[in-house]
Amino acid sequence: MAQDPIWGNLFRKKEGWVSVASELCALNPLFDRFTPSVIDWIVGNASLRHFKSGESIFRMGDEGAGALLLLSGQVSIQTGGKELASVEQGDLFGEVALLPDQYRTADAIATQDCEILFFLRSEISEWKENHPKQAYRLMENLAKMLSKRLLEKNKIQSAACNKDNQHL
């Protein structure tokens, strides 16, 4: 019996990078409470880019076009040449740019050759219009992520201030 191409396509394994990206997204807090099929759709509509070591991914002050997920390699997040964070496989960065009219808050430089998945705000905006409940969940997850990051930075800043005050 000949295999029906419709059924073969329906249950075909995802392309290599799409499968990896979907699995990484499922582990990321931005995609909490999303079904695998929704994550697959979002990943399938994202753009894959390659960067060489030393290449600038974006610069502080650039208009943000969307969030990025590191599939392979390593990225340094910096301001004024000082490293703020090191991004590794599975890490999401630049997510502030999912919000309208936001600019990059730091530089992102590839410290190794990288494969990066771009979640363009324009693509996400179109999806949000058609899926408002899921869009609300995405924005709620984004707010939680940004709030957690701010709290962590405040704790670091507070500890540094307390250390400085002890030396007075």
Question: What's the CATH class label?
Answer: Mainly Beta
CATH structural architecture: Sandwich
Radius of gyration: 19 Å
Order of helices and strands: HHHEEEEEEEEHH
Main sheet summary? 4 strands, antiparallel
The average pLDDT is 87
Q: Which class of secondary structure composition applies to the elements?
A: alpha+beta
Q: Examine the coordinates and then state which fold CATH places here, giving the name of the CATH topology.
A: Jelly Rolls
Task: Please give the count of helices.
Answer: 5
Please give the domain count: 1
Which percent range fits the helix content?
40-55%
Unreliable parts = 4-14
Strand order of the largest sheet: 1-8-3-6
Number of strands: 8
Alpha carbon gap, first and last residue:
84 Å
Give the amount of beta strand, in percent.
15-25%
